[in-house]
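[09:14] KT: can someone run the structure on this one? pasting the chain below
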Amino acid sequence: MAEDLHIVAGSKTEQYQSVIPQIKALIEGEPDLVANLANVVAALKEQFGWFWVGFYLVKENELVLGPFQGPVACTRIRKGRGVCGTSWEKAETLIVPDVEKFPGHIACSSLSKSEIVVPVIRNGNVIGVLDVDSDVLNSFDETDKKYLEETISLIGF
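[09:31] RB: done, structure tokens below
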């Protein structure tokens, strides 16, 4: 596939249904994890225009910043800390409509208003998380959860 993304307007579902096959084509056959993670976040950021989107990977019992798109970010997050660390600890997707109301939220940027974090689970272990922030309250819902989890399943870790 050419490295051009076809951006579509429409409902959130229509946007995911357009971008996910393009992401699959971008990463299919590419063995390098960092390259694939970088293309996934770039495609999602370009399609949806979110404030921040990126991966944190589990390394030596911390989440360590991986490929991302957006402003500079926190580099390391402990298990159970903030939305990312809590998603890692619980091994479940977390949707946070207002980050100011999340106990222990880590404010990498005061512009972040809502967040979704999807754990990357392989062989029963969380090996990373996909973190998406919006500068608008209540940006994420079950549609995002469904399609971001589907996107994560495409990546070979």
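[09:33] KT: thanks! The chain has a mean pLDDT of 93.
[09:34] RB: yep, looked fine to me
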